[in-house]
Amino acid sequence: MGRGGPRWLAGAACGAVLALTASGTAVAVDNLPPLKPGAADLSTGPKACTSGPDRPEVTGPPPLYAVLSDPTEDDVPNRGNSVGGEFEAWWTDADGVEQRLHHASSAPLPSGARSVWNTTLGDQLPLDTVISWHVRADDGAAVSEWSDAGTTACEFVIDGVAPQAPLVTSAEFPEDVYRSAGIGTYGTFRFASPSDDDVVSYRYTLLGHPSVDVAATGPDHTADVRILATETTHVLDVEAFDKAGHRGESTHYAFYPSFASAPVAEWQLSDPAGTRSAAPLTGTAARAGTGAVFGAAAPEGTALASTVRLDGTGHGFLTPGAPVVDTTKTFVVGGWVRPGATDHFMTVASQDADGAPAFTLDLRPVDGGAQWSFGTGSERVTGGEQDADRWSYVLGLYDAETGLAHLYVDGKETAAPVAASPAQVTGNFQIGRARGKLGYRDRWQGEIGDLRVYDRVVVPAEITQLAAVEIPRPTAVGQWSMETATGGTTPTRGEGEPLTLEGGASLFRLPDDICDVYPIDCEPPLYPLRGQAHLTLDGIDDYAHTALPAVDTTGNYTLSAFVRLADDVTVTDAPMTLLSQEGDSGTAAFEVRYVPAAGRWELSVAQAGAAPQVTTVIKETAATGTHRVAVVHDARTDRITLYVDAQKQDGVTATLRSPSASTGGLQIGRGPQAAGGWGSYLRGAVDEVRAFSGALSATAVQDLANGYDPCLSCS
């Protein structure tokens, strides 16, 4: 029997168990002692049983765990076996006297279960002292050897003191020093413990960023980290963690980077027509080949007045005749570009190496289109679709600190960064071509403007600013309220042409003497959709139209209307067009129609240049009744969206890269037919048709649906 520990009966008898022979006869066998617990069966809290320098440190008295087992030969049929445990912990006090605590299980547990000692340690255990412990199993009839028999006991130390606030230093970004190293550069920050020699890690948080843990593997338990400055004010919080798991007080370290440095080379490429070299804002002038023509168009909404057009031949290039950046270190190249074609490889910029470029920023054909690509060394990151004759801002970044290549198109990262190994080069920088084994290749065809090269990281806020386009606030270009009609036309409020009413189209309004026509207690059969009147269409030959297009379908625009289909519309009726505007070859540049058979609204838009034209159809399911239907085209993002009652569902936004240019007037109540002529006449009422030059926000579309003037400045 162990030291003061309880004993209990295990199985059917004390000192013997029943076993079955091969023939099934029960015979008595002697009880076998429990198995000796091994180190793998023991743990100090969540930490493994170890001793010596690897012993765990803990913040308080830990639970001691032991998996205790009895031989399977002692199992009772259908009942298994039970086993308890005896724990001991001991240490040497300040007077050199050994102190010892004992714990025995109050009840046995099934063999193989984990026993725990966690209730009687309390304040009896000293701080900062090596405490040893062991355990043995007890099945009520016999005990195992102690777990440390022939080996060492488990050990732990209770650390009662948390680390002090760490010291933080940086040569590049000293604390509270204004205008130190600049935005887009890295600095080394050293974290050190002022007194604690058992600090194992630090946790640092840069305000606005996730926390990062770093091991204290440096001399005297220090850690060095590299941090990229992204703005002119940064606050760094650093905490130390010791071996026991204590978290110390936080150190707040403020540093103030200087403004970002200018590019090492920049050519706006807005030089006067006929110029034979591009004047630099920084760096060296770039000689222009005869296929480079200055004075070309510039992207709208930018500060550029003009750009350079390269003709895609061997003469269409610019070069400063020297390298402009060390490609083994961090570098960035970016600019405004508008390709004139997308069916072949075309280089925006590169730098020569031995028979190959050290890097390229280029456009590559893919199935059905083209994508941007930035390659350095032998690795490449690709993404961001591009159409011919459309402006984009494209930028490639190689970060030597992380070893990653990044690609941005129109201010957004287009793909996951790629690990890259840059090439050592001393060759010339090139605009519009790339070096190959047999000479230059992949020549640019189209416009390039404001090409910049940096020798530092260009941070996300800068990339957003470089790609920014000042989009004019949407303006109203037509508002047809259908309140009056004179001589077969109804006027627009403000800008725009009047609507001409055709067929039998007319305005419905309630008679002024409605109370004389109907009994006092009756309801009028119909109210105008908005105001005092609305447009009524019979679904046979009624419609209304403007003489000229209400919106430019190749740019940003918004169209909306209130509509109520006739009560007698059924699923057997043919599709009915609410709004359309004629495009190339008699097709509709856009057409909004209701399909009774499907019970839904549809938007059909035509792509330019294809023969036959490609039409994209997107749908919004809605019941018949009164609705505000709106179409929003955002040419900047190549997206067109259909709203019904300010709601858009999955599938109602489509990509429209090359919209068909509209040549005809706005049609209300009919659409062009594939076989020629007009059809799809709408049966019902239409009111408050509005047109805007600009893509309204979702907030503004909601205003329209509510019958208000839209917020034109809302984003």
Give the tags.
disordered N terminus, 43% strand, 715 residues, Immunoglobulin-like, eight-stranded antiparallel β-sheet, single chain, Jelly Rolls, mainly beta, 58 strands, 3% helix, ten-stranded antiparallel β-sheet
Protein model, in words:
The protein is mainly β. The protein has four domains: 143 residues, Sandwich (Immunoglobulin-like); 92 residues, Immunoglobulin-like (Sandwich), CATH 2.60.40; 202 residues, Jelly Rolls (Sandwich), CATH 2.60.120.200; 231 residues, Jelly Rolls, CATH 2.60.120. The protein is built from three helices and 58 strands. The strands form twelve sheets. Strands 21, 23, 25, 26, 28, 33, 34, 35, 36 and 40 form a ten-stranded antiparallel sheet that branches. Strands 41, 44, 45, 47, 52, 53, 54 and 58 form an eight-stranded antiparallel sheet that branches. The longest helix is centred in the C-terminal third of the chain and has 8 residues. The chain is extended.
Fold topology:
Layout (H helix, E strand, L loop, with lengths): L15 E5 L5 E5 L11 E3 L2 E2 L8 E2 L5 E4 L14 E11 L5 E7 L4 E2 L3 E4 L12 E9 L15 E5 L8 E3 L8 E5 L3 E7 L6 E8 L5 E4 L7 E6 L5 E9 L8 E8 L6 E3 L9 E2 L1 E3 L3 E3 L3 E5 L10 E5 L6 E2 L11 E9 L6 E7 L4 E10 L2 E8 L2 E8 L5 E8 L4 E6 L2 E2 L4 E2 L9 E3 L2 E3 L2 E3 L3 E10 L5 H7 L8 E6 L8 E2 L8 E4 L3 E4 L4 H4 L15 E6 L4 E3 L11 E9 L10 E7 L5 E8 L4 E7 L8 E7 L4 E9 L4 E6 L8 E3 L10 E3 L2 E2 L5 E2 L3 E11 L4 H8 L10
Parallel strand pairs: 5-12, 14-20
Antiparallel strand pairs: 1-2, 3-4, 3-6, 6-10, 7-8, 7-9, 7-11, 11-12, 13-15, 15-18, 16-17, 16-19, 19-20, 21-23, 21-40, 22-24, 24-27, 25-26, 26-40, 28-33, 28-40, 29-30, 29-37, 30-31, 31-32, 33-34, 34-35, 34-36, 38-39, 41-58, 42-43, 43-46, 44-45, 45-58, 46-55, 47-52, 47-58, 48-49, 48-55, 49-50, ...
